[in-house]
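Readers of this paper often ask what the protein records in our data store actually look like. Such a record has a labelled line for the sequence and another for the backbone structure tokens. Nothing more is needed to write down the fold, since each code stands for a local backbone conformation. The record that follows is passed on verbatim for readers who wish to inspect the format.
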Amino acid sequence: MSIPVQNLYHLLTYAWDQLDEAEEVAVTAEPADSLLDLLARVLVQGTTHVLKRGLARDYVPEVELTGRLRGKLLLSESIRQQTLLTGRGWCAFDELSHDVPVNRLLKSALHHLLTAPELAKPLRREIHALYVRLPDVALVSVPDLRVYDQVVLHRHTAHYRLLLSICQLVHEEVLLTQEAGERLFRNFTGNDKRMAALFERFVRNFYRRRQRDYKVAAETLSWAVKSAAQVDQAVLPVMHTDVSLTKASHKLIIDCKYYRKALKQNYNKEKIISAHLYQLYAYVQHAQRQEPTRPIDGLLLYPVVDGQLRHSYQLLDTAHRLRVATINLNQGWQAVEEELLGLLAW
């Protein structure tokens, strides 16, 4: 599925829930840009913004052999090395430094982009000009993405959020391409598992941000079954909605499906994918048992890059509907947003 680069960036910023930061670092893709080029542009703009505000600093532990007492004297080490005989001692102290995790991750991501052969040359020059402005920051490898879970942002470093999300994406891509021997972001949208998670988070955060009538969340539905044995309950799969939009008079359950095609060929006829429809039906039925007085609709939502699909089915003797729709991601972003908002009035 070929999604325009600029739209892919919008998907990412919604999925990361970082629209405010993205608006502050406004970047528009050039016609020939790849995703790598666009993310490099964002890092250039974002890093420039950070440098203007001042790089993050924090106190970091240092150990130094010095002729003047500073911090805590490491007496045992100084005696062991007999440095006191020369009028010097080993001291441990905290020093205010730019060499902190957020800056290390930023510098590492810039380094990976610099060494990517497919990066456009003008962007490479811009990144290099920023890279050399971080001499006090160590260049570190990132062998595991869990390092990002250890980063804590506070009020003075909140403006790093978007940058760190892009850095994490770069490092994730580096780890994946090292395993597969591919170029950075060459097959980003070809990873269906990654794109499915991205599409789901995008839809949920889009509705959370762009409308006020519904409360938006992912929710867990309870099975309408009874069993005396705990072992029977334990093996039931979890019913976890992708997106639930709820207001007093209505609930809409959206199941996001990142599939190449919304319909499947069956005996030379196009049909809705049965497993998807059965799953949505189960969600609506169980949600209705939990909230019997609220009309509940279910929506299967597929991304496409051409065409449009709209099908609606009223469940007999109920106020509930099952709907199937596509959202065209190969159009101007304003049209994408209008189409998504229009689904709430459909």
